Amino acid sequence: MMRKPKIAVGGVIIRDNKILLTKRRDEPDKNKWAIPGGKLELNETLEEGLKREMKEETSLNVKIGKLLGIIEVINDSFHYVILDYECDIISGEIEANSDALDIGYFNLNGLSNVNETTLNFIREISKGVFPVSIINRND
């Protein structure tokens, strides 16, 4: 069986120096806090996929902004290429939906129980130079 990288998208919402994170329902990093998002489906554009994932995880309808970063997560069982975009809330109430266990805003400083990739990404975007590029290789 041929294995290939999977493309995923993430939505970054920051308000008052706090970032919106969801608690992951599934592996990898189940029960850890992360930027909301997920894998693209076949024939779905990056924007369509991100809008769908944000609705599935946060119950929010969002407007997609600039590309903030490209993250690669590579280990012996998977390879994700994640494109994280700035998002603005158009409508909806923040609520953990079907793909998340919990949701909340967290201070950009002093985060805990956050997956390593998210933590590295938040550190990098705090520097204000975009797009951020991170490779997290664990093989």
CATH fold-level name: Nucleoside Triphosphate Pyrophosphohydrolase
Q: Distance N terminus to C terminus?
A: 19 Å
CATH architecture descriptor name:
Alpha-Beta Complex
Which word captures the global form? Answer: globular
What do you see in this structure?
The structure is a single chain. This protein is of the alpha+beta class. The chain has a single domain, classed as Alpha-Beta Complex (Nucleoside Triphosphate Pyrophosphohydrolase), CATH 3.90.79. 17% of the residues lie in helices and 46% in strands. The protein contains two helices and nine strands. It has helices at 46-58, 116-125, and strands spanning 6-12, 14-15, 18-24, 33-34, 37-39, 61-75, 79-91, 100-107, 132-138. It has a five-stranded mixed sheet with strand order 5-1-7-6-9, sandwiched between helices. Strand 2 (14-15) and strand 3 (18-24) form a beta hairpin. The radius of gyration is 14 Å and the shape is globular. 30% of the residues are buried.
